[in-house]
Amino acid sequence: MKIKGLIFDFDGLILDTESAEVHIWEMVFQQFGLTFPLDRYMQHVGSATDNLFVQDIMHDLGMSTEQIRSAMDKFEQHFLVDGSFDTPREGVREFILSTRDTHLKLGIASNSYRPWVIGHLQNLHLSQYFDPICTRDEVSNSKPDPEIYNLVLKKWNFTPRQVVAFEDSPTGVQAAKNAGIYCAAIPNPITAKMDISHADVIFNSFTEVDLHEIIRNLEN
Prior knowledge:
The chain is an alpha/beta fold. The chain has two domains: 5-16 and 86-219, Rossmann fold (3-Layer(aba) Sandwich), CATH 3.40.50; 17-83. The protein has helices at 17-31, 38-41, 50-60, 65-81, 92-98, 114-123, 147-156, 170-178, 211-219; strands spanning 5-8, 105-109, 133-134, 163-167, 182-185, 201-202. The protein has a six-stranded parallel sheet, sandwiched between helices. Helix 8 links the parallel strand 4 (163-167) and strand 5 (182-185). The longest helix is centred in the first third of the chain and has 17 residues, at 65-81. The model has no long low-confidence stretch (mean pLDDT 90).
């Protein structure tokens, strides 16, 4: 079966927002005299409800409604000015540009909402390389449900065996596998601590990915 498309997650894969989020949450919790429970937070990395989960953690730690609201505001303020969002992960830009001379289509399947994904892709000058860009707004069920992957396949009119997915988290990998798609995992510093052994292949960064070898193995 000929490979015709590559589907990318966004947060944590193209842009390492997840490491930034953890760093900011650690600072915010410290301001309230608390230690951020990273192990518990990591259970929801890659999901569409991670911030809601953090609010549950705050409640369990005895924070009042007012304190939780204040903590969420502090997080948003730090998040908006975080400079780590100016640069994609290592090798991402080069990998994307390397596909320009191929027949491959590139798409996005993200658990985040459209303004967030589009805004950052535009800031990185990468939005023009992806079509479609499918986000949480367009589906009823978030990853690990395969709905968003199925949406990309539908827009392309491709079968699962005609594409390769790139993910960074267990939740994302499971979504791709649930859709019947071959999945390459490229964890970030946070998700590297998690079990992503259900991915078909794992790389440390995009600089290690030999796309031609992956395609050759799948097509043969």
